[in-house]
Design goal:
The structure holds two protein chains of two kinds.
Chain A lengths: L1 H30 L21 H8 L3 H32 L5 H10 L6 H13 L7 H7 L3 H11 L4 H9 L4 H12 L1 H17 L2 H6 L8 H12 L3 H35 L2
Chain B lengths: L2 H15 L9 H5 L18 H30 L6 H5 L10 H8 L1 H33 L6 H13 L2 H11 L6 H8 L11 H29 L3 H9 L4 H29 L3 H6 L11 H11 L3 H30 L2
Helix pairs in contact in B: 5-15, 6-10, 6-12, 7-10, 10-12, 12-15, 14-15
Classes of the chains: A mainly alpha, B mainly alpha.
Chain lengths: 272, 339
């Protein structure tokens, strides 16, 4: 009975595992197939001959290096700037006393139910007026402050003992010094987690860059890929190569930082 | 500094250090059924003139949120009562207040009802399906009989971190009626080819399948954490009392998981209401508008045809629905789980 159950469990787990990885493995495999091989019946899993032509074509003819650069620049800038902005606010909410603090914090938490799409139309008009549509700032500025980030940092900073901060104060450290030399290093684990979240979120984001980047040369990888799909839908192998280039960087970040990422999800879930 | 204060702080330090740096501070309040207090009572760091300094720390974030989040929310509301269109884009004076006209027009628009229906289809079928798959995967991985837990967890989680647009591109080819892998796999079981993305009846199930594949690993992680929080002695006691594994699942696992399920249910639902990239990449809302979602309709109206007043009304209807659905789900689950 126990053995049968065990076998059934493993069978189910392995079948689901295969279903989960097959699309991604096929994507990688098909990106190395000679043109046309992916459109065959029955479908083939391995390239008859390996080729990197589709990758070279993407970089030489289809400007993918520029899209890659755009995605990287935006993801890194949003991550760094939002960490500074959110950690300052999160720290203030955790460790300072001021009138209306708890009400203000509660208000921010409540407003997390507002979907981002609600803000997009006026935000576009505002950025248009400011001349920021189709610039990097158009993506960076709205991404700089985030309620979720403030919340996570505040929850973490609450567990910093006050006595530590007071000791630093007695030793003559100013407010900013305490924040920068004491609080930031103490909050490192949560900052790393948030950095991964923000980096991946910005890299994978689609709707807002699609709206605000109107010129081809400003596209991020997902926007460029969706656009490429319109012109090269028949060119399966090329599209797979484009998908690999888009997914690979986040996969690498995830593989390297898995521990922090998983822990972040669990932390975020505990609040409920 | 005030010495009495300092002693108090040292006591705090001791009591906190048993669970240093955990983020579960607010949890106790929630578990007891009380209002979450967000751990406010731990704040003892009382600084002279702290209001002023706090303001300096808060200013960048609050200013950005005010200008680039809260102001647009209000502006969007105002916008939804105007006929802002492509002409107003050049000169804002062309926009006029039209009262509820956008909303009236919206509720008369068959395309809006179609998009609303599709979105609900996606949320009502896809959401619970995703939750069930996540829970089953979590139960299997958490089972005592299974080894290589880390490996399965990693594999199941991998799709979560991928780029939605890229996997939508990949799945478009997987769904190809002639050369796609899915139909090939089904043909092994004697199922004749299905035109997944070309048939209005199959297009939404195809979108749901992709979404579940992409998302279930995320909720699975949260469920695993929830399962590990259930104390073992509950199961031991049940076993001694002769409860079957199914009874244990029904009487211990599910009730103990209720807070986790509520959280996971709400975030999944909110996310699923915002369906956009999958239909944008795979079907452009077709065939016969069978995968047109609310956000896709908003995008088309607002940023393709520049009917921004009308699009703002769509955005606000989405907001209202998400808000109501969150409140309802919260109320219903609270009542059932009776925490």
């Amino acid at each position: 009975m126990r053995l049968t159950l065990k076998i059934l469990l493993y069978a189910a787990l392995i079948i689901v595992a295969i279903a989960t990885v097959t699309p991604m493995l096929w994507m990688i495999s098909a990106s190395c197939m000679p043109s046309g091989q992916a459109s065959n019946y029955p479908p083939q899993f391995f390239p008859t001959s390996f080729t990197f032509d589709h990758y070279t074509q993407l970089f030489s003819r289809l400007n993918v290096l520029k899209y890659f650069f755009n995605s990287l620049l935006l993801s890194v800038s949003v991550t760094l700037l939002s960490l500074v902005v959110n950690s300052m606010a999160g720290y203030a909410f955790a460790k300072y006393r001021f009138r209306g603090r708890d009400k203000l914090f509660g208000f921010l938490i409540t407003s997390m139910v507002v979907p981002a799409q609600v803000t997009m139309l006026p935000l576009f008009l505002m950025l248009n007026k400011m001349g920021l549509v189709n610039t990097y700032w158009g993506v960076i500025i709205p991404g700089m402050a985030g309620i979720f980030g403030i919340f996570m940092i505040r929850q973490y900073a609450l567990s910093i003992p006050d006595s530590l901060l007071e000791a630093a104060r007695i030793d003559g450290a100013g407010d900013f010094r305490i924040y920068w030399s004491l609080v930031i290093p103490l909050c490192k684990p949560i900052l790393v987690t948030l950095a991964i979240f923000t980096f991946m979120g910005t890299w994978n984001d689609f709707l807002w860059p699609l709206i605000v980047m109107t010129d081809d040369s400003m596209y991020t990888l997902p926007v460029a890929l969706a656009n490429l799909m319109g012109e090269h839908a028949q060119d399966t192998e090329l599209m797979m190569a484009g998908s690999v280039i888009t997914i690979l960087p986040v996969m690498i970040v995830f593989a390297a930082m898995q521990k922090y990422y998983i822990r972040g999800i669990m932390m975020g879930s505990v609040k409920g | 500094m005030n010495t009495g204060h300092k002693i108090l702080n040292d006591e705090m330090f001791l009591s906190r250090s048993q669970t240093p740096f955990d983020s579960t501070i607010g949890k106790r309040g929630v578990r007891n059924g009380a209002k979450p207090n967000f751990g406010i009572r731990y704040t003892m760091f009382n600084i002279r003139n702290s209001g002023g300094t706090a303001a300096l720390f808060l200013f960048p974030a609050l200013a950005m949120l005010a200008v680039f989040f809260f102001l647009p929310v209000v502006a969007s509301f105002v916008l939804s009562f105007t006929d802002f269109d492509i002409y107003s884009l050049g000169n804002i004076h062309f926009a006029r207040f039209v009262g509820f006209e956008n909303y009236v027009k919206l509720f008369d628009d068959p395309l809006f009802w179609k998009a609303l229906g599709n979105t609900f289809y996606f949320v009502v079928v896809g959401g619970p399906l995703s939750l069930i798959v996540s829970l089953l995967a979590a139960l299997a991985i958490n089972s005592r009989l299974v080894r290589f837990k880390g490996f399965f967890r990693l594999v199941y989680f991998a799709p979560v971190v991928t780029t939605l647009v890229a996997v939508s591109v990949v799945w478009r080819f997987i769904y190809h009626p002639r050369f796609g892998m899915l139909n090939y796999a089904l043909s092994v079981f004697g199922i004749s080819p299905i035109d997944w993305l070309g048939n209005p009846h199959w297009a939404m199930p195809a979108v749901i399948l992709l979404a579940v594949w992409k998302n279930f690993g995320y909720n699975m992680i949260i469920f695993i954490a929830g399962l590990q929080n259930i104390p073992d002695y509950l199961y031991e006691a049940a076993r001694i009392d002769g409860a079957s594994p199914f009874d244990q699942f029904k009487k211990i696992t599910l009730p103990m998981l209720a807070p986790t399920t509520l959280f996971v249910g709400i975030i999944t639902m909110i996310g699923y209401f915002q369906l956009f990239a999958e239909p944008y990449v795979m079907t452009q809302g077709g065939p016969l508008d069978s995968t047109l979602s609310i956000v896709l309709l908003m995008y088309q109206q607002g940023f393709r045809w520049w009917n921004m007043g009308y699009a703002a009304a769509i955005a606000f209807v989405l907001f209202a629905i998400i808000f109501l659905a969150t409140v309802v789900q919260y109320a219903v689950q609270r009542k059932h789980s009776d925490l």
